[in-house]
Amino acid sequence: MKMEQSKVLSMPRVLIVNGDPFNNRSATGITMTNLFRGWDPERIAQTYMFDVKPETDICRRYYHLSKSSIPIVALLRNHSSKKLSSSAAAIKTAEAAQGIVSAPSKARIVLKEAADAWADVIPFKLTNEFWQWVEEFKPEVIYTQLVNIRLMDLVLKIANRFSIPVVPHFMDDWPSTRYKNNTFSLLPYYLMQSRIRAVLKKSSRGMTISEMMAREYEQRYGGRFDAFMNCVDIPADPLPQRASEEGSAVIFTYVGGLHLNRWQSLKQVGETLQELKNNGVDVLGEVYAPLADIERYGQIIEMGTVLRIKGSLQPNEVMSVLQSADVLIHIESFDEEDRKYTRLSVSTKIPQYMASGRPILAYGPDDVASCRYIEDQGCGLVVGRRDKELMLQVLESMAKDSGLRNKLGRCGKALALEKHNSLIEREKFRNIIGSVAKNGK
Questions:
Q1: Please, are residues 61 and 46 in contact by the beta-carbon 8 Å criterion?
Q2: Of 101, 150, 220, 417, whose CB has the highest number of CB atoms within 10 Å?
């Protein structure tokens, strides 16, 4: 009992300043939830900006800085600030992604990006109520995934007012892409870079979503960065040698979002599965995705006999679906802008895939961190370029060779136990935040 009390008291009072609150729907919400699970709820509070319903199992103390907290100029934007995460690629329609974009549409995209960038320069209008809320909590350290200029300004104001350090956690390489490719947004881009460096001066330790990003950020910004990906509870039960019954179709399953043009890569996987089936190899593709993505892209990618849209999953349903598959599909976009944005990121679902003990088929640029991680760790096969023949060969080998599938799956589960085990990763995460809070920087 005394040991448990000591552990709770060693947890600093953390104020989380973020776009997303704790939730089980977005990638950032899931990763944050898994890292903070077990933290004393009395020693954690969060202010957030997006219109997402927060979960209360991790954190109970919230302050929503809604659109009413932003001056009227910011409200004139044509779409939610949450869509900024992937610049123009995130607001393309499916038709636009196929090249059906008129010159006026392209011009509108450029103007929207510029309007978004300049709107992000406008800070929150902070009330006495907000400052009282923060003061009553008495934070000792700030944890933040940043998001944009406005949120960085907020982080700096809180850190300066209460003389507390900051632990920034970079989930994607948005500092390299946001605002940069629009001539009308160059000033916001340089303002963003200056804010990032100002935030980093408030801490001796930063966090990233991959080792690849950590090493590059150390060179780019100086200081020390530690990699924290999504962490997962590892199933203790032994895995069956093969998910499907003998003589039935080999099931290739995808679980995740279809945004950032990932739907295009998934469609190409489906076309290859169709070719395999035409050649007499019994295969079936199943897709589980967020409802909004299914509504937007489902009819485009679905191929009734080989690639089926199965619906959306609740968090407690994911592992059983993964373990019912023979092969798990991971996809990344080959679009140049998407590639820059995701280059240093390891997807939230990769640790889940590994923990399931199933082999991974990755299709995406081989220089993207997710694909490199899967290949380097030997838990899957990667098709790292647009090559139909190579894709056909890889999928055929995975469909026909159960021994290969079992070998790759065992390797993935062993890696999950070593590097993504929630019991180990949460303790490391707490120690770093506690160290920063204790040292005051």
A1: yes
A2: 150
